[in-house]
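As promised in the previous annual report, we have extended the structural survey to additional targets. Below is the entry for Glycine betaine/L-proline ABC transporter ATP-binding protein.
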Amino acid sequence: MTTTKNTGATKNTGATKNTGATEPTAADPAAPAFAVRDLWKVFGPKADRIPGNPEYRILSTAELREKTGCTAAVRDVDFDVQRGEVFVVMGLSGSGKSTLVRTLTRLIEPTSGSIAMDGEDVLGMDKNRLRELRRRQTAMVFQNFGLLPHRSVLDNVAYGLEIQGVGKAERRAKAQEIVEKVGLAGMEERRPGQLSGGQQQRVGLARALAVDPEVLLFDEPFSALDPLIRRDMQEEVIRLHREEGRTMVFITHDLSEALRLGDRIMLMRDGAIVQLGTPEEIVANPADDYVRDFVRDVPREQVISVRRAMRPADAAESATGTELAPDTLVVDAIEAVANSGEPCRVVEDGRTLGIVDHERLLAVVAGIDGGSDTEGKEVAAI
Ligand SMILES: Nc1ncnc2c1ncn2[C@@H]1O[C@H](COP(=O)(O)OP(=O)(O)O)[C@@H](O)[C@H]1O
Ligand SMILES: [Mg+2]
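The corresponding structure token record, generated without further manual editing, is:
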């Protein structure tokens, strides 16, 4: 990711952009929710000089800090968030996750690079357009809930609509609807202080949903919650996503949370991307030793699908046996093979792609399968 870029030096003043006008630019329906290119955020003295300087660019975060007094929180990052996906940004504390998500709506100004939302240049937006972006198109859920302590649950949920200038009756009606949606019915008149942590975060979630944003941004929203409550909230997010299909950017330092929620996961280390892929790709094909260490204890059968676990079918096997879809998880295939007492077929559009048997499935559990992309492709090509 950090090799051949020469564009880091361009400072985005918006001066040459054609989208800087007050009029919102029509969204490009084919564009990703976010397209981020060559993005840097450097904190510290004369931070602007860092991204364009080949000598500084290659220094580690620690070396850079020592030499220049600057911290590169986000380093030369490129990614797209597709519409409708749950895009997880994962990394240890200090890896740049919060900085990154805040640059998306310019709560933190990037040092260099480009960001487009629905094809529209975010760095070219003027104040009014940015306000619109932050109030209507996106909504954020924070770890510390960020609720107004003297307001009722209902008024907290209605807050974003109030800022938008929506009238009282309308915003309360909308808030009521969302309060019910997130399981807080009956608590409308309570203050945040009268709620448990999990309930408070439901209010935070409801407040974000109430403005009906295109994209929900979550910055470690459940990190402060007890494990069981946390699990409940993750289920809630999964349910909401299933029902609404809203684009979500979800930050976490917790691998199991990332695997549970993410359509794709972007793993960050020291401000840079280490790997970006589906949970299955990351667990099956870690990009380096760092990622391998990270995913070492993941129950592979719960993440890896039969598409990766299967072997080629011989002619006799192609027509009989229980059928499994290619995205069936190994854990479920084990049950199918155990129940039927024979190997199962992996079938897509009526075509047998391969076979999973005891041996192949156990190999995944034991972590001794090839499990590589090439293997999957070879089999799929048969
Ligand atoms: N305002 C700031 N000034 C200086 N350094 C900062 C600032 N905000 C964050 N950093 C540094 O940037 C790095 C990334 O921080 P952050 O984005 O908060 O990471 P994460 O959210 O992954 O824990 C850290 O080294 C942090 O100390
Ligand atoms: Mg953070």
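The pocket of adenosine-5'-diphosphate (ligand 1) is lined by residues 43, 71, 73, 91, 93-99 (CB under 6 Å). Confidence is low (pLDDT under 50) at residues 1-24, 371-382. These points will be discussed at the next consortium meeting with the crystallography subgroup.
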